[in-house]
């Protein structure tokens, strides 16, 4: 089974650029795809200075849905949005005033990987951060979720003038050009050794073998000299998993995007770049009352149930995946309540599973219900989890093929859109326009 590699290099054009992120792509592109992936063959997708966060999300979602191991290499710069103070990966059009609308929210990366297994998912990152973003990461860490092994660094703004270079990622690429990819912890240490003088005492290093959460940062060491933890960045209690990022609405693809593949190309990786949703084969519905419950393998001690669910989806066993997620949601509701983060997380997983099964109606209903539960719990209308639920309900609504079912769900979506406009301008008018068209063609 081939692996998948996503190479993402992004930074703003013009005066706001802190790092020449795209400058590392030629070095990475010279590495054999199999070496980048650590598998026998691999499909490689490159994104160089993309313009639209939704276009990046589309590629990330397709990569996360592909079978086999996944490695995501990210070079770029972090900035905080002014409203919610959340870290974003700045893209080509990003300015300090437009981070919320033109940059990629980092929690989108985390949530797209949440149904994968940490055993076959890795992030290698080289990020530069402005002063605010660097303080945020130093105090809270860079939350990449529980389902990926993360290696790399976050570097602060250099004191000197000029644009920095992604030295860590270039070191990684140079090491990989030998034709051999050592285990990621070893590759990480070798890359750090190559840039020790440049980043010593300043960079926050991310070293997170699969499954530990949340990620933590620590100060780099010089040979023979131990380094203390950066205040506030040691391991902390697990953070609740938030909602998935907004679904990719149809938008123009960003500039500078290129795809190259080596070895057999999986159906998911071969999809058109403008595809908005990687849906595995099959159109299974939720189990009906009275139908036999599929066999549900219980996770072994220490095993993440998400890995079982992900395996079931990839093999087309959608009813089994749905039933397992429903069991965990029921347990969470009984133990902690319907609006607890754990219960809401499993409700969101079930909404995603309906999408993977090709059931847009069920997925839309589920996302609408999640949005209502979050709002009823007192969450703000611009909270990322609330916006994400409404955005995904909106996207699934546009995928409903039956006009009668779309007309049925349209008014509820419009009501929620009025309260939760989201990040994309014109979303409410989009719902109203399509709903008018549906009502005009009603029998």
Attribute tags:
16 helices; 40% helix; Serine Threonine Protein Phosphatase 5, Tetratricopeptide repeat; Rossmann fold; alpha/beta; single chain; 443 residues; globular; 2 domains; ten-stranded mixed β-sheet
The portion of residues forming beta strands comes to 5-15%
Helix content: 25-40%
Would you list the SSEs in sequence order as H and E? EHHEHEEHEHEHEHHHEEEHHHHHHH
Query: What distance separates the N and C termini?
Result: 49 Å
User: How many structural units, i.e. domains?
Assistant: 2
Give the name of the CATH architecture of the largest domain. Answer: 3-Layer(aba) Sandwich
What is the third-level CATH name, the topology of the largest domain? Rossmann fold
Q: Structural class of the secondary elements?
A: alpha/beta
pLDDT averaged over residues = 77
Alpha-carbon Rg, integer: 22 Å
Principal-axis shape equals globular
- The stretches of 5 or more residues where confidence is low (pLDDT under 50) are 209-293
Total beta strand runs: 10
Number of helices: 16
The CATH class of the largest domain: Alpha Beta
Largest sheet: 10 strands, mixed
Description of the structure:
The protein is globular. β6 (121-129), α6 and β7 (149-156) form a beta-alpha-beta unit. The longest helix has 19 residues, at 318-336. The protein has 2 domains: 3-218, Rossmann fold, CATH 3.40.50.1460; 284-440, Tetratricopeptide repeat domain (Serine Threonine Protein Phosphatase 5, Tetratricopeptide repeat), CATH 1.25.40.10. Helices cover 40% and strands 14% of the residues. It has 443 residues and is α/β, with parallel strands linked by helices.
């Amino acid at each position: 089974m081939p692996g998948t590699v996503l190479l993402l290099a992004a930074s703003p054009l013009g005066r706001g650029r802190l790092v020449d992120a795209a400058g590392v792509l030629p070095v990475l592109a010279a590495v054999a795809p199999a070496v980048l992936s650590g598998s026998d063959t691999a499909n490689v997708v490159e994104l160089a200075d993309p313009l639209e966060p939704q276009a990046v999300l589309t590629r990330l979602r397709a990569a996360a849905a592909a079978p086999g191991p996944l490695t995501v290499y990210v070079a770029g710069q972090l900035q905080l949005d002014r409203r919610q103070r959340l870290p974003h990966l700045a893209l080509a059009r990003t300015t300090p005033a437009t981070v919320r609308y033109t940059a990629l929210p980092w929690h989108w990366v985390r949530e797209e990987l949440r149904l994968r297994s940490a055993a076959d998912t890795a992030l290698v990152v080289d990020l530069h951060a402005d002063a605010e973003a660097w303080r945020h990461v130093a105090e809270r860490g860079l939350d990449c979720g529980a389902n990926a092994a993360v290696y790399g660094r976050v570097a602060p703004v250099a004191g000197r003038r000029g644009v920095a270079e992604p030295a860590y990622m270039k070191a990684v690429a140079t090491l990989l050009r030998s034709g051999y990819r050592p285990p990621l912890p070893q590759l990480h240490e070798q890359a750090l050794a190559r840039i020790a003088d440049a980043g010593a005492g300043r960079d926050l290093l991310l070293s997170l073998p699969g499954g530990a959460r949340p990620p933590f940062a620590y100060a780099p060491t010089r040979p023979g000299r131990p380094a203390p933890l950066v205040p506030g960045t040691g391991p902390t209690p697990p953070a609740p998993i938030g909602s998935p990022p907004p679904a990719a609405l149809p938008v123009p693809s960003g500039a500078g995007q290129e795809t190259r593949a080596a070895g057999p190309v999986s159906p998911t990786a071969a999809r058109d770049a403008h595809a908005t949703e990687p849906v595995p084969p099959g159109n299974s519905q939720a189990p009906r009352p009275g139908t036999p419950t599929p066999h549900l393998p219980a996770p072994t001690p220490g095993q993440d149930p998400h890995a079982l669910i992900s395996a079931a989806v990839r093999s087309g066993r959608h009813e089994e995946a749905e039933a397992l997620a429903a069991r965990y949601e029921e347990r969470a509701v009984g133990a902690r309540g319907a609006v607890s983060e754990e219960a809401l997380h499993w409700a969101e997983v079930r909404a995603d599973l309906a999408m993977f099964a090709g059931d847009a109606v069920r997925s839309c209903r589920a996302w609408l219900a999640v949005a209502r539960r979050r709002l009823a719990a007192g969450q703000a209308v611009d909270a990322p989890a609330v916006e994400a639920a409404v955005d995904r309900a909106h996207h699934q609504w546009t995928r409903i093929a039956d006009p009668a079912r779309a007309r049925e769900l349209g008014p509820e979506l419009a009501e929620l859109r009025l309260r939760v406009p989201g990040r994309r301008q014109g979303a409410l008018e989009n719902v109203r326009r399509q709903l008018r068209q549906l009502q005009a063609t009603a029998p």
